[in-house]
Write a structure and sequence with these properties.
mainly alpha
């Protein structure tokens, strides 16, 4: 396949405009910065490979990328599950370390933010996968309801309602966990 400079330049712009949102989405779903970086790289490698032949309209690029990201996250979970099962069968254990976060200059604030993030993520794990997916697209990837709908094959209204209900379920879980 011959790659033209124009296509490389166009895709570079797509990458710059969307890499942060795709990474945040992957991180929200995988809860591990290293895994999120790897999956984000896979997403853009697959997108670049398909970009020339797919003729994606500029209006739909973001939704197209997040569909690729959603599929890459699902694939990652499948691979991870197989690795854990193999690890269990070989060693009799299946423990993996918790996600690590980068330290910043303001240690006190960073500790408080990390604690809150860990708490919310622990409550988020109790949600159904669909709710986690909706929240990841809305909060971490900062997609609009229309973009979420396009990514998941829903109407904008259905995406809005489903996302707000998922957020409400997460809020209730967080409140119950703190009071209980």
């Amino acid at each position: 396949m011959v790659v033209s400079q124009a296509n490389v330049a166009a895709f570079s712009e797509v990458y710059r405009a969307n890499v942060t949102g795709v990474y945040r989405f992957c991180l929200s779903q995988l809860r591990n910065p290293s895994d999120a970086e790897d999956v984000t790289a896979e997403v853009f490698a697959a997108a670049f490979s398909a970009y020339q032949r797919s003729l994606v309209e500029l209006d739909n690029v973001r939704a197209w990328l997040f569909r690729i990201a959603r599929n890459a996250v699902v694939d990652h979970h499948r691979r991870d599950r197989r690795r854990r099962l193999l690890h269990l069968s070989l060693n009799g254990t299946g423990e993996y370390g918790a996600a690590e976060f980068d330290a910043s200059v303001d240690v006190e604030r960073d500790v408080a933010v990390r604690d809150e993030l860990r708490y919310v993520l622990s409550q988020m794990r109790r949600l159904r996968q669909r709710d986690r997916l909706l929240l990841g697209l809305r909060v971490a990837a900062r997609q609009t309801y229309a973009e979420i709908g396009e990514t998941l094959g829903l109407t904008e209204h259905a995406a809005t309602v489903a996302t707000r209900r998922a957020m409400e379920r997460l809020r209730r879980l967080c409140e119950q966990g703190r009071s209980g």
